[in-house]
Amino acid sequence: MRLRVVGLLCAALLAGCRDSPREVMQSATEAAARRDLVALQESFSAATVQRLQRAWNQDQVPPADGWQALAEQLLFLGKALEVKDEEIRGDYAKVTTLAGVEPRDYYLRKEDGRWRLEIGAGQRFEQAAPASAPAEPPPPESKGGT
Fold first, then answer.
1. Which helix (H) or strand (E) holds 33?
2. Integer Cα distance of 80 and 106 in angstroms
3. Which string of DSSP letters, residue by residue, matches 49-64?
4. What are phi and psi of 34, to 5 degrees?
5. What is the pLDDT of residue 19?
6. What is the number of helices (H) and of strands (E) in the chain?
7. Fewer CB within 10 Å, N or C, the chain?
8. Residue 41 and residue 99: Cα distance in Å, rounded?
9. Buried b / exposed e along 108-135 (16+ C-beta atoms within 10 A)
10. What is the rounded distance in angstroms from the CA atom of residue 19 to the CA atom of residue 89?
11. How far apart are alpha carbons 45 and 11 in whole angstroms?
């Protein structure tokens, strides 16, 4: 019995570690639609949570109001966004969603082995090398003529 419990716990932990950027984004937008601000906050990196709370504190915005406003950005007409594509570059990822027909990109960073939404990670994503960047062919040699 004890081995079975340990096995189930290990399986649950491994399943939690395998979250993909797409799955994290889906979970975040669904949490926003349910108004589950605790689950929404868990979708963001620790650095992002600290930055947001510091900004809300400076603006004298209660954290619950700040999270609610952020949740609205993860919705379209009150419903979860449609998650379309993901692209991973090292420890950074871009997830493209649809808000109706309008694409929206969200960026994530791997934190302690798990993908988390991170405000401001877009530039780092762009600077990271693509997973399988095709080599550029050399320029054609010019034939000089006299």
1. helix 21-34
2. 14
3. HHHHHHHHHHTT--HH
4. -85, -5
5. 87
6. 6, 6
7. C
8. 21
9. bbbeeeebbbbbebeeebeeeeeeeeee
10. 16
11. 24
Structure tokens at 6: 């340990």
Q: What share of the chain is helix, strand, coil (3-state, %, to 5)?
A: 45, 25, 30
pLDDT of residue 12: 41
Looking at residue 8, what is its pLDDT?
38
Q: What is the pLDDT of residue 130?
A: 78
Q: 119 near 109, Cβ under 8 Å? A: no
Q: What is the DSSP string of 67-96?
A: HHHHHHHTEETTEEPEEEEEEEETTEEEEE
What's the half-sphere exposure (Cβ side, CA atoms, 13 Å) at 72? 5
In this prediction, residue 13 carries a pLDDT of: 41
Segments of the chain with pLDDT less than 50:
2-17, 146
- DSSP three-state, residue 102: strand
For residues 1 and 35, is the Cβ–Cβ distance under 8 A? Answer: no
Which residues partner with 130 through β-bridges?
Answer: none
Residue pair 39/32 in contact by the 8 Å Cβ criterion: no
Name, in order, each residue with C-beta under 8 angstroms of 10's C-beta and a sequence gap of 6 or more.
none
